[in-house]
């Protein structure tokens, strides 16, 4: 009986302890809610404000993205105020077949006017004449082939320092004067020095007199040749675009090929105007070249007059 009663009392004690612990938990939790009530309200309000800010930022970002995308669409190829994007370049295989088709007569080739072709032919013939003329003038100015200009168009025929024949003559006369019947006098040395100065001055003046011809050979004519090469390339691209536009079937392809053709036609017209401006300057260039030749002969005549004066000078 005692053990059972002890067990009952223990069980009753455990139940009582459990029942006592439960209200203690409620008592412990109740003060927390009561004490943290204002802080939790403030935290909840702050979290709600953060959520509102995040939602507003998201809405602003989405609106900015939408506005930027709408502006991009307005500025694109389909927009009213946008510029047409240049067409992608053709591949090498595509260009090969188009060129083969053009040689077979399948692609119509844009022809230049007769006046344009005649002007180009005149410029090419004139360049050949200028080459021969420059070679002749340089042979007059520089008799030593070792000092001839390479390339010829640059006209660099002046001697280096102490390489002028008159400058190299003075030390030779000093060595061989004792072997001559008449010794070399101070007057002869002075005359030789003067002729060396005059000869160098003639080379500088002669090259300066031919500056317009040098510019034509080194700059103007190569630029014209390069512009013609680009013009022929633009013409070929325009002919290819026209051929592709004629063979297009669907409306989408027709619209795309039409844009490509208009773009290539615009580039061709721009390059054509550039070549025409170069050809318009050709008559003035010919006049300036004539003045260059006249100036060269004037300088050459003046050089001979200086040499004659140097040989007649006295001490």
From TrEMBL:
Which stretches of sequence are listed as region Disordered? 1-92
Its cellular-component GO annotations read: cytoplasm
BAR domain spans which residues?
Answer: 88-305
Q: Where is the composition biased (Low complexity)?
A: 56-69
- Source organism, top-level taxon: Eukaryota
* Protein name, as recorded: BAR domain-containing protein
């Amino acid at each position: 009986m005692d053990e059972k009663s002890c067990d009952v009392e223990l069980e009753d004690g455990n139940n009582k302890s459990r029942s006592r612990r439960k209200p203690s938990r409620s008592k412990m939790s109740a003060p927390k809610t009561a004490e943290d009530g204002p802080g939790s309200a403030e935290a909840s309000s702050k979290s709600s404000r953060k959520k509102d800010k995040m939602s507003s930022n998201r809405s602003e970002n989405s609106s900015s993205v939408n506005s930027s995308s709408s502006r991009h669409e307005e500025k694109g190829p389909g927009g009213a105020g946008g510029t047409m994007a240049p067409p992608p370049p053709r591949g090498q295989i595509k260009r090969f077949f188009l060129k083969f088709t053009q040689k077979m007569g399948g692609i119509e080739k844009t022809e230049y006017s007769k006046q344009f072709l005649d002007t180009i032919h005149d410029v090419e013939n004139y360049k050949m004449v200028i080459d021969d003329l420059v070679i002749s003038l340089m042979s007059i100015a520089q008799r030593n082939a070792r000092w001839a200009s390479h390339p010829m168009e640059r006209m660099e025929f002046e001697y280096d320092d102490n390489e002028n024949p008159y400058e190299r003559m003075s030390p030779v006369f000093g060595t061989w004067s004792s072997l001559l019947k008449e010794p070399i006098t101070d007057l002869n040395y002075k005359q030789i020095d003067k002729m060396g100065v005059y000869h160098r001055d003639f080379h500088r003046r002669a090259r300066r007199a031919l500056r317009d011809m040098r510019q034509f050979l080194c700059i103007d004519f190569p630029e014209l040749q390069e512009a013609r090469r680009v013009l022929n390339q633009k013409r070929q691209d325009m002919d290819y675009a026209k051929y592709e536009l004629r063979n297009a079937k669907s409306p989408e392809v027709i619209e795309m090929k039409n844009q490509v053709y208009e773009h290539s036609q615009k580039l061709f017209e721009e390059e054509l105007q550039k070549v025409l401006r170069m050809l318009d300057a050709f008559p003035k260039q010919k006049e300036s070249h004539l003045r260059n030749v006249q100036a060269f002969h004037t300088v050459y005549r003046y050089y001979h007059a200086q040499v004659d004066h140097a040989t007649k000078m006295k001490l």
